[in-house]
Amino acid sequence: EMFGQLTTGLESAWNKLRGVDVLTKENISEPMRDIRRALLEADVSLPVVRRFVSSVSEKALGADTIRGVRPEQQLVKIVHDELVQLMGGEVSDLVFTKSGPTVILLAGLQGVGKTTVCAKLAFYLKKLGKSCMLVAADVYRPAAIDQLTILGKQVGVPVYSEGTEAKPPQITKNAMEEAKSKNIDAIVVDTAGRLQVSLLCIPFNFQPKVTAHGILIDKAMMDELKEVKKAVNPTEVLLVVDAMTGQEAAALVTTFNIEIGITGAILTKLDGDSRGGAALSVKEVSGRPIKFVGRGERLEDLELFYPDRMAQRVLGMGDVLSFVEKAQEVMRQEEAVELQKKIMSAKFDFNDFLKQSQNVAKMGSMSRVIGMIPGMNKVTPAQIREAEKRLAFVESMINAMTAEEREKPELLAESRERRIRVAEESGKTEQEVSQLVAQLFQMRAQMQKLMGMVQGQEAIAGMG
Ligand code: GDP
User: Fold this and answer.
1) Is 31 touching ligand 1 by the criterion CB < 6 Å?
2) Residues forming beta bridges with residue 107, ordered by sequence position
3) Which of 158, 179, 186, 371 is most open to solvent, judged by the fewest CB atoms within 10 Å of its CB?
């Protein structure tokens, strides 16, 4: 199991938290060290590990405790969510052009599984109901063309080839024209991938170029890719990388992205004994998403890359995750009900009114809570702005009231003298103050009515 070692490493982090009541700076420091070690051992690159651990610590310490959820369970959930973010958050599917064939250009070093991916993608496209054609643009290895032809037959899709004499940009362009004339939805282009060379055995025709990321790349190969790209303006340029190369996979994606501009990566051989670091690092390091993963040699062994499923596989704790999610949801609902009750409480005085005016910025969220009450669910942004203006206006009047007057609005209702005083102190007219007092009583009455409705509904629900 690819993530086996990582999963075990993380387990020791959760185990160290058993018996604690709440996550603190002291009691998470050892588990954090375990997490850090586990990720490094899984071949995740050091800067990524550092950022990850500091972000998890911050969230763990800032997290509200959730009733019924143990601290170690909460940490599992935080690590899960952070892993999902690390891997790009959402699934990143293929993009198709609206008209004309969608061109999917595959790049990658030799032996990573690029030709196999061509066939797997063709199989995937067929399942989506899209017609597809494979294009043999790797003209340097006759065997590659033969292999693609065989795979095409196996999948049942046409393979476009012009042998080994033609130039890849021209082949690809011609293939696109042919696809267009035959109304084919997508073409998958297999390009040349030279072997990555070590400094010890540089072939005579190799022009090495060391990139900022320490990757030796074959300039001729890159230039040709650029030309093919220019010739057909592909919708997708996907770099195929071998998961076994660990940290180097992420550096390769970065290099190809800088050199030719890619739209994503395909990680192959995840069924092998890679330690998983590549899957975790590629997005964070390169800024480009992993779109697919290969898990075997068969045609159907290519899957979309789902960050959340991958994170679950890393943690191996699906039940804990769904439990924490449910508890969080229950807590959110309870909080919403509490707030609603406060808003509607019969003792709604000028202090509450003032609190609201000071919380103007939160008006949007207030309106969402109010939206849960039947009949009050259509608060528009214009109404919110209007309410904000109005609240600023009444704030000056409320500030001019005594503490007693704020708590007992009746005093103002009963005494004209008090109203005149408030008007003078706030620079408003007596009439404006009277309107404000009347408004408060109106709101009170309305809220009590709504409260009655809600309680009535609760009673009816309780009877059922
Ligand atoms: P290319 O040189 O990049 O075109 O690589 P190939 O497509 O010829 O694949 C090289 C080898 O890797 C072949 O033996 C494939 O069967 C194998 N291979 C490709 N993808 C996977 C994978 O996801 N899992 C495993 N286990 N083997 C794979």
Assistant:
1) no
2) 239
3) 371
Candidate of 110, 194, 196, 297 to mutate for ligand 1, largest count of ligand atoms within 8 Å of Cβ = 297
On whether the pTM is more than 0.95, the answer is: no
Contact 39, 280 (CB under 8 A): yes
| Tokens found for residue 404 | 């007693």
- Beta-sheet pairing, 208-210 with 216-218: antiparallel
Cα separation, 113 vs 166, whole angstroms: 24
Phi, psi angle pair for 402, to nearest 5° = -80, 165
Q: How far is the CA of 116 from the centre of ligand 1 (A)?
A: 6
- List the domains of the chain with CATH numbers: 4-88 (1.20.120.140), 102-305 (3.40.50.300), 345-463 (1.10.260.30)
Q: What is the 3-state secondary structure (H, E, C) of 142-211?
A: HHHHHHHHHHHHHHCCCEECECECCCHHHHHHHHHHHHHHCCCCEEEEEECCCCCCCHHHCCCCCCEEEC
Here the ipTM equals 0.98
CB-ligand 1 contact for 116 (6 Å cutoff): yes
Query: Does 367 sit in the ligand 1 pocket, CB within 6 Å?
Result: no
Q: What is the DSSP letter of 32?
A: H
Is 357's C-beta closer than 6 angstroms to any atom of ligand 1? no
pLDDT in tens, 29-62: 999 999 999 999 888 988 999 999 999 999 999 8
Helix axes 4-15, 25-41, angle to 10 degrees: 170
SS3 40: helix
Q: How many CB atoms lie within 10 A of CB 430?
A: 14
Exposure string of 123-146, with b = 16+ CB inside 10 Å and e = fewer, is: bbbeeeebbbbbbbbbbebeebbe
Whole-angstrom distance, CA of residue 435 vs CA of residue 418: 14
The span from the CA of 378 to the CA of 387, in Å, is 14
CA neighbor of 84 nearest in space, from 61, 45, 52: 52
Name the 3-class secondary structure at 260. coil
DSSP character at residue 239:
E
Give residue 243 CA to ligand 1 midpoint distance, Å: 11
Q: Which helix (H) or strand (E) holds 237?
A: strand 236-242
Q: Which residue has the tokens 């042998």?
A: 163
